[in-house]
Amino acid sequence: MPITYDAVKRLSGQLYDWSLRRVPADTKLGLRRALETETHDGARQILRMMLGSANRAEQEERFVCSDAGVPVYHVTIGTAARLEGDIRQAISDGFDELVARIDPPLLKHVTNPLTNERGYKGKDMPLVSWDVAGGADWVEMLCQPKALGSGRWAALETFSFPSLGQIEDYVMKVVMQAGSQHCPPVIIGVGIGGSFDVAARIATKATMRPVGSVNAEPMLAAMEERLLRAVNATGFGPMGTGGDTTALAVHVDYAAGHGYTPVAVCFNCWINRRTRARLHPDGSVERME
Fold this sequence. Notes:
The chain is an alpha/beta fold and 289 residues long. Helices cover 38% and strands 23% of the residues. The strands form four sheets. The protein has a five-stranded mixed sheet with strand order 6-2-7-12-13, covered by helices on one side. The longest helix has 20 residues, at 41-60.
């Protein structure tokens, strides 16, 4: 059976809705672990408030944050999947339907960068990136809404044959520039190599890794550990009130490239919004997070 326009439209709206009302389980676990190790009383109070807000939003079907950001989707299509209808249009139409029905209503965060006019519609909105999975017969959709905390402070710079030390220095430079304006404790994604656009995509995908997971590449696992210690030593702390917990995780990945090496750094705020599900040919929806 084909994966239909209607199925994609329905799921795209559901994913965005779900993402606004819950903090992912791995992120809540990261917050609880941070609470156990945090030494600053004020920071511990903020972490308890965050966990309380996350639990209450989930129980009462409320938004965790009033800033819903804008819809961003990462879609992976199996090479054995059969598609029926305009899948790209289905995602856009799913967002339109969500705007019409969601309670509480969404604020107008879709912004024209040339005029700063705000609304719900806009060029290339929702923002969608695409990938393929060899041999799979499903379509996987991940929704990761982007707002100020998870978008404003991202940065990229291109180096020529940098050392690991230079790369880590740059990551810390971006961290210091962001300060606490991205609503910490954050998840930090770092993409190294490839090309300009590939490095940014790698950094974004790195933020999707479960909090608490260990990088399979030993060199990157050691880099992540060093960077996490350094970030948390800045003392910005939860919501900038001071403390040991400025980041819950630093996730790094890379791609081979030319002698020039772009390094991209991006952040997800403490809510770490993301929902993921697969559409199967029999019409079933498998929620993955």
